[in-house]
Amino acid sequence: MWHWAKIKPSEIPVTLLSAALPLAAALFLSAALPAAAQEAREFQTQTGTVLVETLAHGLQHPWAVEVLPDGALIVTERPGRLRILRDGKLSSAVEGLPDVAEHGQGGLLDVALDPQFSANRTLYLTFAARGDDGYGTALARATLSDDERRLTDVKEIFRMNRFTRAGQHFGSRIAIDRDGSLFFGIGDRGDGERAQDPRDHAGALLHINADGSVPSSNPYRGGTEGLPEIWSKGHRNPQGLTFDTADGKLLTVEHGARGGDEVNNPQPGKNYGWPVITYGKDYSGAEIGEGTAKEGLEQPLYYWDPSIAPGALAVYRGTMFPEWNGDLLVAALKYQLLARLERDDTGAITSEERLFDGEFGRIRDVIVAPDGALLMVTDEQNGAVLRVSKVPTQ
After folding, report:
1. Rounded distance, CA 115 to CA 312, Å?
2. How sure is the predictor about 27, in pLDDT bands with cuts at 50, 70 and 90?
3. Which interval of the chain is the signal sequence (predicted)?
4. pTM exceeding the 0.85 threshold for the entire prediction
5. CB-hemisphere CA count at 13 Å for 272?
6. What is the set of domains in the chain, with CATH numbers?
Protein backbone atom coordinates (compact mmCIF):
# COMPACT_ATOMS: atom_id res chain seq x y z
CA MET A 1 0.00 0.00 0.00
CA TRP A 2 1.22 3.53 -0.71
CA HIS A 3 1.07 6.48 1.62
CA TRP A 4 1.70 10.20 1.44
CA ALA A 5 2.66 12.87 3.89
CA LYS A 6 0.95 16.25 3.50
CA ILE A 7 3.21 19.09 4.47
CA LYS A 8 3.39 22.66 3.27
CA PRO A 9 6.89 23.20 1.86
CA SER A 10 8.53 26.59 2.14
CA GLU A 11 9.53 28.48 -0.93
CA ILE A 12 13.11 27.98 -2.06
CA PRO A 13 15.25 30.48 -3.98
CA VAL A 14 15.23 28.56 -7.25
CA THR A 15 14.48 30.33 -10.51
CA LEU A 16 12.47 28.99 -13.40
CA LEU A 17 14.02 26.73 -15.98
CA SER A 18 13.73 28.79 -19.12
CA ALA A 19 15.35 27.04 -22.04
CA ALA A 20 12.34 26.10 -24.18
CA LEU A 21 13.22 24.11 -27.26
CA PRO A 22 12.15 25.52 -30.61
CA LEU A 23 8.70 24.91 -32.02
CA ALA A 24 10.31 22.89 -34.78
CA ALA A 25 11.28 20.24 -32.22
CA ALA A 26 7.67 19.83 -31.15
CA LEU A 27 6.49 19.53 -34.73
CA PHE A 28 9.20 16.98 -35.45
CA LEU A 29 8.30 14.83 -32.48
CA SER A 30 4.57 14.87 -33.22
CA ALA A 31 5.01 14.02 -36.89
CA ALA A 32 8.27 12.34 -37.88
CA LEU A 33 9.08 10.10 -34.95
CA PRO A 34 5.76 8.27 -34.69
CA ALA A 35 5.99 7.44 -38.38
CA ALA A 36 9.22 5.58 -37.60
CA ALA A 37 7.76 3.73 -34.62
CA GLN A 38 8.21 -0.04 -34.62
CA GLU A 39 5.30 -0.91 -32.32
CA ALA A 40 2.21 0.86 -30.96
CA ARG A 41 -0.19 -0.17 -28.18
CA GLU A 42 -3.15 1.55 -26.57
CA PHE A 43 -3.77 1.68 -22.81
CA GLN A 44 -6.72 2.91 -20.77
CA THR A 45 -5.98 5.44 -18.02
CA GLN A 46 -8.18 7.28 -15.56
CA THR A 47 -8.22 10.26 -17.92
CA GLY A 48 -8.56 8.54 -21.29
CA THR A 49 -6.72 6.36 -23.78
CA VAL A 50 -2.98 6.75 -24.43
CA LEU A 51 -0.84 5.36 -27.23
CA VAL A 52 2.63 3.98 -26.41
CA GLU A 53 4.94 3.74 -29.42
CA THR A 54 8.33 2.08 -29.51
CA LEU A 55 10.69 4.50 -31.24
CA ALA A 56 13.78 2.29 -30.90
CA HIS A 57 14.95 -0.87 -29.20
CA GLY A 58 18.25 -2.74 -28.95
CA LEU A 59 19.80 -0.23 -26.53
CA GLN A 60 21.88 -1.67 -23.68
CA HIS A 61 20.51 -0.40 -20.37
CA PRO A 62 19.58 3.11 -21.57
CA TRP A 63 19.57 5.55 -18.67
CA ALA A 64 18.50 8.97 -19.97
CA VAL A 65 16.92 10.67 -22.98
CA GLU A 66 16.84 14.31 -24.06
CA VAL A 67 15.41 16.13 -27.10
CA LEU A 68 17.79 17.90 -29.48
CA PRO A 69 16.71 21.20 -31.08
CA ASP A 70 15.73 19.53 -34.39
CA GLY A 71 13.59 16.93 -32.59
CA ALA A 72 16.08 14.06 -32.68
CA LEU A 73 16.81 12.32 -29.38
CA ILE A 74 20.06 11.82 -27.52
CA VAL A 75 20.24 8.72 -25.30
CA THR A 76 22.79 7.43 -22.78
CA GLU A 77 23.57 3.74 -22.29
CA ARG A 78 24.95 2.71 -18.92
CA PRO A 79 27.95 0.75 -20.31
CA GLY A 80 29.32 4.08 -21.56
CA ARG A 81 27.72 4.90 -24.91
CA LEU A 82 25.94 8.03 -26.14
CA ARG A 83 23.63 7.54 -29.14
CA ILE A 84 21.50 9.77 -31.39
CA LEU A 85 18.02 8.62 -32.49
CA ARG A 86 16.84 10.34 -35.66
CA ASP A 87 14.19 9.24 -38.17
CA GLY A 88 13.82 5.93 -36.32
CA LYS A 89 17.51 5.06 -36.69
CA LEU A 90 20.11 4.86 -33.94
CA SER A 91 23.57 6.27 -34.61
CA SER A 92 26.78 4.50 -33.77
CA ALA A 93 28.25 5.46 -30.41
CA VAL A 94 29.38 9.09 -30.15
CA GLU A 95 33.16 9.19 -29.70
CA GLY A 96 35.20 11.16 -27.18
CA LEU A 97 33.29 10.48 -23.97
CA PRO A 98 35.07 10.80 -20.63
CA ASP A 99 36.46 7.63 -19.05
CA VAL A 100 33.26 5.96 -17.84
CA ALA A 101 33.51 3.08 -15.35
CA GLU A 102 30.76 0.49 -15.69
CA HIS A 103 30.74 -0.79 -12.12
CA GLY A 104 27.70 -2.25 -10.37
CA GLN A 105 24.90 0.29 -10.71
CA GLY A 106 27.35 2.82 -12.10
CA GLY A 107 28.26 3.77 -15.65
CA LEU A 108 27.14 6.53 -17.98
CA LEU A 109 24.10 8.05 -16.27
CA ASP A 110 22.35 11.32 -17.10
CA VAL A 111 22.68 13.74 -20.02
CA ALA A 112 21.41 17.33 -19.94
CA LEU A 113 21.56 20.00 -22.63
CA ASP A 114 22.87 23.46 -21.83
CA PRO A 115 20.12 26.13 -22.04
CA GLN A 116 22.06 27.65 -24.97
CA PHE A 117 22.69 24.32 -26.69
CA SER A 118 21.42 25.56 -30.06
CA ALA A 119 24.24 28.11 -30.09
CA ASN A 120 27.05 26.43 -28.11
CA ARG A 121 26.25 22.68 -28.47
CA THR A 122 27.25 22.16 -24.83
CA LEU A 123 25.94 19.24 -22.83
CA TYR A 124 26.58 17.73 -19.39
CA LEU A 125 27.02 14.10 -18.34
CA THR A 126 27.06 12.36 -14.98
CA PHE A 127 28.89 9.06 -14.75
CA ALA A 128 30.77 6.63 -12.53
CA ALA A 129 34.50 7.42 -12.62
CA ARG A 130 37.56 5.44 -11.54
CA GLY A 131 39.98 6.65 -8.90
CA ASP A 132 42.84 5.33 -6.81
CA ASP A 133 40.43 4.26 -4.06
CA GLY A 134 37.70 2.81 -6.26
CA TYR A 135 34.73 4.50 -7.91
CA GLY A 136 32.62 7.60 -7.47
CA THR A 137 30.28 9.98 -9.28
CA ALA A 138 31.61 12.71 -11.57
CA LEU A 139 30.13 15.35 -13.85
CA ALA A 140 31.62 16.51 -17.16
CA ARG A 141 30.90 19.28 -19.65
CA ALA A 142 31.45 18.71 -23.37
CA THR A 143 30.61 19.99 -26.85
CA LEU A 144 28.75 17.82 -29.36
CA SER A 145 30.31 18.16 -32.80
CA ASP A 146 28.17 19.51 -35.65
CA ASP A 147 28.14 16.08 -37.30
CA GLU A 148 27.14 14.50 -33.96
CA ARG A 149 29.94 11.94 -34.19
CA ARG A 150 32.07 13.01 -31.24
CA LEU A 151 32.38 15.08 -28.09
CA THR A 152 35.06 17.75 -27.98
CA ASP A 153 36.34 20.10 -25.25
CA VAL A 154 35.48 17.46 -22.64
CA LYS A 155 36.16 18.75 -19.14
CA GLU A 156 35.37 17.13 -15.82
CA ILE A 157 33.95 19.91 -13.65
CA PHE A 158 33.07 17.90 -10.53
CA ARG A 159 34.26 14.69 -8.88
CA MET A 160 33.01 13.50 -5.51
CA ASN A 161 35.56 13.63 -2.73
CA ARG A 162 35.59 10.04 -1.47
CA PHE A 163 35.77 7.00 -3.75
CA THR A 164 35.11 3.42 -2.59
CA ARG A 165 34.78 -0.05 -4.11
CA ALA A 166 31.01 -0.09 -3.53
CA GLY A 167 28.92 -0.65 -6.65
CA GLN A 168 25.67 0.99 -5.58
CA HIS A 169 24.00 4.37 -5.18
CA PHE A 170 25.88 6.63 -7.59
CA GLY A 171 22.76 8.81 -8.27
CA SER A 172 22.49 10.82 -10.54
CA ARG A 173 20.21 13.20 -12.45
CA ILE A 174 20.96 16.76 -13.54
CA ALA A 175 18.59 19.75 -13.39
CA ILE A 176 19.70 23.07 -14.88
CA ASP A 177 18.53 26.36 -13.40
CA ARG A 178 17.76 29.43 -15.53
CA ASP A 179 21.13 30.94 -14.64
CA GLY A 180 22.85 27.88 -16.12
CA SER A 181 23.94 26.42 -12.78
CA LEU A 182 23.65 22.68 -12.25
CA PHE A 183 21.87 20.68 -9.56
CA PHE A 184 22.58 16.94 -9.33
CA GLY A 185 22.32 14.15 -6.78
CA ILE A 186 24.74 11.54 -5.45
CA GLY A 187 23.61 8.54 -3.42
CA ASP A 188 25.11 7.36 -0.15
CA ARG A 189 27.28 4.81 -2.06
CA GLY A 190 25.88 2.00 0.09
CA ASP A 191 26.97 3.56 3.38
CA GLY A 192 24.07 5.41 5.01
CA GLU A 193 26.19 7.25 7.55
CA ARG A 194 27.87 9.17 4.75
CA ALA A 195 24.53 10.88 4.03
CA GLN A 196 24.76 12.62 7.43
CA ASP A 197 28.33 13.89 7.02
CA PRO A 198 28.37 17.50 5.72
CA ARG A 199 31.98 17.00 4.59
CA ASP A 200 31.11 14.08 2.33
CA HIS A 201 29.52 14.51 -1.11
CA ALA A 202 27.70 11.17 -0.77
CA GLY A 203 24.01 11.23 0.13
CA ALA A 204 23.65 14.80 -1.02
CA LEU A 205 22.17 17.15 -3.56
CA LEU A 206 24.95 19.23 -5.11
CA HIS A 207 24.88 22.66 -6.80
CA ILE A 208 27.67 24.07 -8.98
CA ASN A 209 28.10 26.59 -11.76
CA ALA A 210 28.67 25.47 -15.34
CA ASP A 211 32.44 25.95 -14.90
CA GLY A 212 32.51 23.91 -11.67
CA SER A 213 32.72 26.89 -9.32
CA VAL A 214 30.46 27.28 -6.28
CA PRO A 215 27.31 29.45 -6.56
CA SER A 216 26.88 32.21 -4.02
CA SER A 217 23.46 30.81 -3.03
CA ASN A 218 24.91 27.60 -1.59
CA PRO A 219 24.44 27.21 2.19
CA TYR A 220 28.04 26.11 2.94
CA ARG A 221 29.84 28.21 0.32
CA GLY A 222 32.29 29.38 2.98
CA GLY A 223 33.29 25.78 3.65
CA THR A 224 33.26 26.06 7.44
CA GLU A 225 30.12 24.01 8.18
CA GLY A 226 30.16 21.69 5.19
CA LEU A 227 31.48 21.20 1.69
CA PRO A 228 30.69 24.28 -0.41
CA GLU A 229 29.11 22.31 -3.28
CA ILE A 230 26.43 20.77 -1.01
CA TRP A 231 22.85 22.02 -1.28
CA SER A 232 21.13 19.49 1.02
CA LYS A 233 21.95 16.23 2.83
CA GLY A 234 20.26 13.07 4.10
CA HIS A 235 19.41 11.61 0.66
CA ARG A 236 19.73 7.85 0.18
CA ASN A 237 19.94 7.62 -3.62
CA PRO A 238 18.33 10.46 -5.62
CA GLN A 239 17.84 9.39 -9.23
CA GLY A 240 15.07 11.81 -10.20
CA LEU A 241 15.54 15.59 -10.16
CA THR A 242 13.63 18.36 -11.91
CA PHE A 243 12.31 21.91 -11.65
CA ASP A 244 8.61 22.68 -11.79
CA THR A 245 8.60 25.43 -14.41
CA ALA A 246 5.35 26.87 -13.03
CA ASP A 247 6.72 27.85 -9.61
CA GLY A 248 10.48 27.21 -9.84
CA LYS A 249 10.52 24.58 -7.10
CA LEU A 250 13.14 21.88 -7.20
CA LEU A 251 11.82 18.33 -6.71
CA THR A 252 13.59 15.02 -6.30
CA VAL A 253 12.62 11.37 -6.03
CA GLU A 254 14.92 8.92 -4.30
CA HIS A 255 15.18 5.25 -3.46
CA GLY A 256 14.36 4.00 -0.01
CA ALA A 257 15.37 0.58 1.29
CA ARG A 258 12.51 -1.90 1.78
CA GLY A 259 9.92 0.87 1.64
CA GLY A 260 10.58 4.55 2.08
CA ASP A 261 11.01 5.80 -1.51
CA GLU A 262 10.51 9.56 -1.24
CA VAL A 263 9.54 12.69 -3.13
CA ASN A 264 11.25 15.74 -1.64
CA ASN A 265 11.51 19.50 -2.23
CA PRO A 266 15.21 20.03 -1.39
CA GLN A 267 16.00 23.36 0.22
CA PRO A 268 19.43 24.82 1.00
CA GLY A 269 21.06 23.47 4.14
CA LYS A 270 18.17 21.15 5.03
CA ASN A 271 18.58 17.51 6.05
CA TYR A 272 16.18 14.90 4.60
CA GLY A 273 16.85 12.32 7.24
CA TRP A 274 18.47 9.21 5.76
CA PRO A 275 19.35 6.97 7.61
CA VAL A 276 18.25 8.56 10.89
CA ILE A 277 14.59 8.64 9.85
CA THR A 278 12.89 6.64 7.10
CA TYR A 279 9.56 5.05 6.24
CA GLY A 280 11.35 1.88 5.14
CA LYS A 281 13.11 -1.06 6.74
CA ASP A 282 16.37 -2.81 5.99
CA TYR A 283 16.25 -5.56 3.37
CA SER A 284 16.68 -8.02 6.25
CA GLY A 285 13.49 -6.69 7.84
CA ALA A 286 15.37 -4.90 10.63
CA GLU A 287 14.42 -1.40 11.72
CA ILE A 288 16.53 1.51 10.44
CA GLY A 289 17.44 4.59 12.45
CA GLU A 290 15.20 6.26 15.01
CA GLY A 291 11.75 6.01 13.41
CA THR A 292 9.90 8.14 10.89
CA ALA A 293 10.34 11.63 12.36
CA LYS A 294 12.85 13.64 14.34
CA GLU A 295 13.20 17.34 15.12
CA GLY A 296 15.46 19.12 12.65
CA LEU A 297 14.97 16.54 9.89
CA GLU A 298 12.59 17.09 6.98
CA GLN A 299 9.53 15.02 6.10
CA PRO A 300 8.96 13.87 2.52
CA LEU A 301 6.18 15.28 0.39
CA TYR A 302 5.23 11.68 -0.42
CA TYR A 303 6.54 8.19 0.18
CA TRP A 304 5.93 4.62 -0.98
CA ASP A 305 5.73 1.46 1.11
CA PRO A 306 6.45 -1.00 -0.41
CA SER A 307 9.09 0.55 -2.63
CA ILE A 308 8.53 1.04 -6.34
CA ALA A 309 12.27 1.73 -6.95
CA PRO A 310 11.87 5.16 -8.58
CA GLY A 311 13.99 6.28 -11.52
CA ALA A 312 13.38 9.73 -13.00
CA LEU A 313 10.89 12.45 -12.09
CA ALA A 314 9.09 14.92 -14.36
CA VAL A 315 6.46 17.60 -13.72
CA TYR A 316 3.82 17.61 -16.42
CA ARG A 317 3.54 21.03 -18.02
CA GLY A 318 2.28 20.53 -21.55
CA THR A 319 -0.65 20.83 -23.92
CA MET A 320 -1.26 17.20 -24.92
CA PHE A 321 -2.56 16.12 -21.48
CA PRO A 322 -4.05 19.30 -19.96
CA GLU A 323 -5.82 17.15 -17.34
CA TRP A 324 -2.36 16.18 -16.05
CA ASN A 325 -1.19 19.77 -15.60
CA GLY A 326 1.04 19.99 -12.53
CA ASP A 327 1.06 16.23 -11.91
CA LEU A 328 4.30 14.46 -11.04
CA LEU A 329 5.41 11.58 -13.25
CA VAL A 330 7.73 9.02 -11.67
CA ALA A 331 9.46 6.22 -13.59
CA ALA A 332 9.69 2.99 -11.59
CA LEU A 333 12.04 0.04 -11.91
CA LYS A 334 10.84 -2.60 -9.44
CA TYR A 335 7.18 -2.58 -10.48
CA GLN A 336 7.97 -1.55 -14.06
CA LEU A 337 5.47 1.28 -14.17
CA LEU A 338 4.92 4.99 -14.50
CA ALA A 339 3.33 6.62 -11.44
CA ARG A 340 1.21 9.73 -11.98
CA LEU A 341 0.85 11.74 -8.77
CA GLU A 342 -1.97 14.28 -8.69
CA ARG A 343 -1.46 17.48 -6.70
CA ASP A 344 -3.92 20.02 -5.33
CA ASP A 345 -3.60 23.81 -5.52
CA THR A 346 -1.21 23.86 -2.56
CA GLY A 347 1.14 21.36 -4.21
CA ALA A 348 0.19 18.53 -1.84
CA ILE A 349 0.03 15.08 -3.46
CA THR A 350 -3.52 13.75 -3.24
CA SER A 351 -3.62 10.52 -5.25
CA GLU A 352 -1.62 8.13 -7.42
CA GLU A 353 -2.39 6.36 -10.67
CA ARG A 354 -0.12 3.55 -11.85
CA LEU A 355 0.35 3.11 -15.60
CA PHE A 356 1.83 0.31 -17.74
CA ASP A 357 2.35 -2.18 -14.88
CA GLY A 358 4.96 -4.65 -16.11
CA GLU A 359 4.21 -4.01 -19.79
CA PHE A 360 7.57 -2.62 -20.90
CA GLY A 361 10.15 -3.58 -18.27
CA ARG A 362 12.06 -1.32 -15.91
CA ILE A 363 11.26 2.31 -16.70
CA ARG A 364 14.35 4.38 -15.94
CA ASP A 365 13.68 7.84 -17.39
CA VAL A 366 10.65 9.96 -18.25
CA ILE A 367 10.59 13.47 -19.71
CA VAL A 368 7.96 15.76 -21.22
CA ALA A 369 8.70 16.45 -24.90
CA PRO A 370 8.09 19.87 -26.46
CA ASP A 371 4.79 18.70 -28.01
CA GLY A 372 3.51 17.50 -24.61
CA ALA A 373 4.02 13.78 -25.23
CA LEU A 374 6.10 11.73 -22.80
CA LEU A 375 9.38 10.06 -23.67
CA MET A 376 10.63 7.11 -21.61
CA VAL A 377 13.52 4.64 -21.69
CA THR A 378 13.53 1.10 -20.31
CA ASP A 379 16.58 -0.06 -18.37
CA GLU A 380 16.94 -3.49 -19.93
CA GLN A 381 19.62 -5.43 -21.80
CA ASN A 382 17.41 -4.88 -24.86
CA GLY A 383 16.23 -1.43 -23.79
CA ALA A 384 13.77 0.75 -25.66
CA VAL A 385 12.83 4.38 -26.23
CA LEU A 386 9.06 4.87 -25.87
CA ARG A 387 6.69 7.73 -26.69
CA VAL A 388 3.38 8.20 -24.85
CA SER A 389 0.73 10.31 -26.59
CA LYS A 390 -2.97 10.93 -26.23
CA VAL A 391 -5.50 9.09 -28.36
CA PRO A 392 -8.14 11.64 -29.41
CA THR A 393 -11.70 10.90 -28.37
CA GLN A 394 -14.04 10.07 -31.23
Report:
1. 20
2. very low
3. 1-37
4. yes
5. 36
6. 46-390 (2.120.10.30)
